[in-house]
Amino acid sequence: MLVTGLGLGLGAGIAVADDLRERALENFEAVPQYPPVIDGNEMTESKIELGKMLFFEPRLSSSHLISCNTCHNVGMGGHDYLPTSIGHGWQKGPRNSPTVFNAIFNAAQFWDGRAADLAEQAKGPVQAGVEMSSTPERVVDTLNSMPEYVDAFENAFPGEDDPVSFDNMATAIEAFEATLITPHAPFDTFLRGNDNALNEEEKEGLALFMDKGCASCHGGVNFGGEDYYPFGLVSSPGGEILPTGDKGRFAITNTASDEYVFRAAPLRNIELTAPYFHSGAVWSLEEAVAVMGTSQLGAELDEEEVQSIVAFLKTLTGQVPEIRYPELPPSTDTTPKPDPMTAINK
After folding, report:
1. Reduced to 3 states, what is the DSSP secondary structure of residue 282?
2. How far apart are CA 268 and CA 249, in angstroms?
3. Torsions phi, psi for 86 (to 5 deg)
4. What is the pLDDT of residue 3?
5. Residue 276, SS3 per DSSP
6. How many helical (H) and strand (E) elements, i.e. helices and strands, does the chain have?
7. Is 30 exposed, middle or buried (0-12, 13-18, 19+ CB in 10 A)?
8. Which of 233, 251, 183 is nearest to 29 (CA)?
9. From first to last of its 346 residues, what are the pLDDT tens digits of the chain?
10. What are phi and psi of 228, to 5 degrees?
């Protein structure tokens, strides 16, 4: 009789797990093992390797101190662990730096979605005065001054008359960044059929994440990054978390309905990417979940619900790619000299 009871209990447990998985598959997708194909950007080994060099290349900045990796550190969750990044002249940037991991799965880049893809995104910080403070002309002059880079661009973009270009710089960086995916998260293992990949608390958190409505904004491969939503949909989280001076997507569209609208933050590897929100004002994942419950869902989540959802969110941490720091070519006599990294507008 006991054996029969255990068998029935096991069968019921499997049925519950299968039902939870089926619901999850309606909302989410696993991170693939290999990078996706990029339309118009062939992922060749030479292009990816060039993109990696450029990602770590501080001489793309006018100070020769700031690289893509400065704000999107692949050794620290793909970001910089600061509320907002520090750029040229030690200026404080306006928003928290999003992780570069799995960014290829976002429908658009930046918190306001102003860049359609990673190549377009790569051009922005290089030219922004508050970030790398350079120009396309200076970047091209810098790269052309080093024979190793000239050869690398010719290999990555064969047959082009003038392969060393600002556009090709961005295209190569995009190719490298597309490889920065984090497969094999416990949740992905669960999606693929392993009931034991999540414990009971984590499964409860997954169920709550869907039942409470979190999945309506945070779905797909990247658990977000697919669309734009008002921050403070039900109630405003307060000026520290939602600064009144940053109206989000409104600055791009100039449409009143886009005031305080932002791209839904991707939640993959969320335990590695504190502080949270575009303001970087919240360091605790538990607090971030509670804030979202109140502000977006109109739900006062109790402590147990918050802990269960946080436990589930930690199952979204995947296998971080192992990146070996590239050896960059030496500057030459014709390489533009660095601008001083001094405070400005005192």
Report:
1. strand
2. 23
3. -105, 130
4. 53
5. strand
6. 12, 2
7. middle
8. 183
9. 555 555 555 555 666 778 999 999 999 999 999 999 999 999 999 999 999 999 999 999 999 999 999 999 999 999 999 999 999 999 999 999 999 999 999 999 999 999 999 999 999 999 999 999 999 999 999 999 999 999 999 999 999 999 999 999 999 999 999 999 999 999 999 999 999 999 999 999 999 999 999 999 999 999 999 999 999 888 788 888 998 889 899 999 999 999 999 999 999 999 999 999 999 999 999 999 999 999 999 989 999 999 999 999 999 999 999 999 999 999 999 999 999 987 554 3
10. -120, 140
pLDDT at 279: 94
8 A C-beta contact, residue 229 and residue 213: no
Tell me whether the omega of the peptide bond preceding residue 230 falls within 30 degrees of 0, making it cis.
Answer: no
Give the separation between CA 151 and CA 128, rounded to whole angstroms: 28
305 part of the active site: no
SS3 assignment for the chain: CHHHHHHHHHHHHHHHHHHHHHHHHCCECCCCCCCCCECCECCCHHHHHHHHHHHCCHHHCCCCCCCHHHHCECCCCCECCCCCCECHHHCECCCCCCCCCCHHHCCCECCCCCECCHHHHHHHHHHCCCCCCCCHHHHHHHHHCCHHHHHHHHHHCCCCCCCCCHHHHHHHHHHHHCCCCCCCCHHHHHHCCCHHHCCHHHHHHHHHHHHCCHHHCCCECCCCCCCEEECCCCCCCCCCCCCCCCCECHHHHCCHHHCCEEECCCCCCHHHCCCECCCCCECCHHHHHHHHHHHHHCCCCCHHHHHHHHHHHHHHCCCCCCCCCCCCCCCCCCCCCCCCCCCCCC
> Which of the residues 22, 42, 120, 131 is marked catalytic?
131
pLDDT of residue 235: 77
Q: What is residue 345's predicted lDDT score, i.e. its pLDDT?
A: 47
Round to whole Å and give the CA distance between 262 and 112. 5
Side chain identity at residue 284, one-letter code: S
Q: Using an 8 Å Cβ cutoff, are 99 and 269 in contact?
A: yes
- Residue 29 burial by Cβ neighbours in a 10 Å radius (0-12, 13-18, 19+): middle
